[in-house]
Design goal:
This protein has 305 residues and is of the alpha/beta class. It contains 12 helices and 9 strands. The chain has one domain: TIM Barrel. An 8-stranded parallel barrel has the order 1-2-3-4-5-7-8-9, surrounded by 6 helices. α2 packs across α4 and α9 packs parallel to α11. The radius of gyration is 18 Å and the shape is globular.
Length: 305
């Protein structure tokens, strides 16, 4: 892991808060898509929704310095195109100077706190479209969970639609992460059956006044071919909380990445907190899967055990 000057980071935050906007203005930007038209983004917006666990490690993401070290390690690996995060994380990365030539996607709604009775009410508590544009970022991401039995769902749908419209009006990418969700023994659970994901895709695709800049962020599920047949929108695959051996996860990603419309991966915990804590190795496998033409073969072989 890299050694980061966290003391300096804290001093800058306390004494020079305008340094964040200055760093954003000075950031060297890149096109959203390069030669192969694919993206590998590292997700780091979990803590703002109270999600700190990774697998059996309940507080894995609680140490901000450790999270930043893992993020910097990931962002420095070849083939990593950018990051998705909340303002607190993105601001830290800007001050650390690691976002040049990276795609930056701002996470917009983190109000549906994990485990809360109001979890489906995903209020927009993070970035808004105006700030994403002012900061020079490439787009915004929103979680859109749909519980047909919860009266808070229409407000979430309306807020997501407004965000899609606002981003599109500014020429910015709108990344929508839709799920059909329901309460199971009091806990909100996402339905990962193919039928449910297809239905969520259909609903999410119609949000907003324009779909011209809408991308989807979808889980890898069984019968993924049918899921991708449900949309023409560019799609990135999410990693989620790893529950299987890494080799099995990589194999599922590899198969899904070959489907029409799939443009890459957005992965957080599975790469930042792999079982062996070798962040660089895990990221290299994901990069090889996402950008196979740029790989020398070794990392891709590793993905298949």
């Amino acid at each position: 892991m890299p050694e980061l000057d966290l003391d300096r980071l804290r001093e800058l935050r306390a004494r020079e808060p305008d340094a964040i906007a200055a760093a954003a203005a000075a950031r060297r930007r890149r096109p959203l898509l390069r030669g192969d038209g694919r993206l590998l983004l590292i997700a780091a917006d979990h803590p703002a929704r109270g999600v700190l666990g990774v697998g059996s490690r309940a507080m894995a993401m609680a140490d901000r310095g450790e999270l930043l070290r893992r993020l910097v390690t990931a962002l420095e690996r070849p083939g990593v195109d950018g990051v998705l995060g909340t303002p607190d994380v993105i601001d830290d990365l800007l001050l650390l100077g690691v976002l040049d030539d990276k795609v930056v996607i701002g996470s917009m709604n983190r109000g549906g706190l994990q485990g809360a009775r109001f979890e489906i009410d995903d209020r927009f508590t993070g970035y808004d479209a105006a700030t994403i544009a002012t900061m020079g970022f490439e787009g915004g991401k929103m979680l859109c969970r749909i519980d047909l039995d919860d009266h808070a769902t229409p407000a979430t749908l309306a807020a997501c639609a407004e965000a899609v419209s606002s981003l599109a009006a500014r020429g910015l990418l709108a990344m929508v992460e839709p799920f059909l969700s329901r309460r199971v023994h009091g806990q909100l659970r996402n339905d990962l059956s193919a039928d449910a994901v297809v239905r969520a895709v259909a609903i999410a695709s119609g949000l907003g006044a324009s779909s011209a800049r809408t991308w989807l962020k979808l889980p890898v599920v069984d019968d993924m071919e049918r899921v991708m047949a449900a949309t023409t929108l560019p799609t990135l695959l999410l990693g989620g909380d790893p529950t299987t051996a890494p080799e099995q996860t990589y194999a599922r990603w590899d198969k899904a990445l070959a489907l029409p419309g799939v443009r890459g991966l957005v992965v957080g915990r599975a790469l930042l907190y792999p079982p062996d804590d070798d962040v660089a190795a895990a990221v290299d496998v994901a990069a090889a899967l996402t950008h196979p033409e740029a790989d020398d073969g070794g990392r891709l072989d590793a993905a298949h055990g």
